[in-house]
Design brief:
Blueprint (H helix, E strand, L loop, with lengths): L10 H6 L1 H13 L4 H8 L4 E2 H7 L5 H13 L3 E6 L5 E6 L1 H5 L1 H14 L9
Antiparallel strand pairs: 1-3, 2-3
Length: about 120
């Protein structure tokens, strides 16, 4: 199986597991409790840090910053800092991030269809 580390995949793992690499790569990008929600929230328009924080009301500042940095590192979002006081920071989806939207939309559809069904209880 493909082994994923914080920095992605080594070349040997990619070559040895080419058939599952795409799934593992995508999973690696979306891993993180809030990443898919951040991507979904940015699909309509660019947002300030404070708006994202308000949308994800229970996330800590440290966790949000970490998730945003990882998404930026992976090329999914861009971060623009405007030299104002206080500083204005805007996050937006990149082209690569926009390419993830069909996956996020499919997750939304799946959750709407299956999410509210009662669990089967075996007795």
């Amino acid at each position: 199986m493909v082994k994923i580390c914080n920095y992605g995949f080594d070349e040997e793992a990619i070559e040895d597991n080419r058939d599952v690499y795409g799934i593992a790569y995508t999973q690696n990008i979306l891993s993180g409790r809030y990443k898919n929600l951040i991507i979904w929230y940015l699909k309509e328009k660019d947002r300030r840090y404070s708006h994202i924080k308000k949308f994800l009301e229970n996330i800590s500042q440290g966790s949000l910053t970490k998730q945003l940095r990882e998404l930026e590192y992976d090329g999914i979002i861009s971060r623009t800092v405007y030299p104002e006081v206080p500083p204005k920071v805007i996050y937006a989806l990149t082209e690569k991030g926009t390419d993830l939207l069909p996956i996020i939309d499919m997750m939304e559809t799946f959750g709407k269809y299956h999410g509210e069904q009662p669990k089967n209880n075996k007795e």
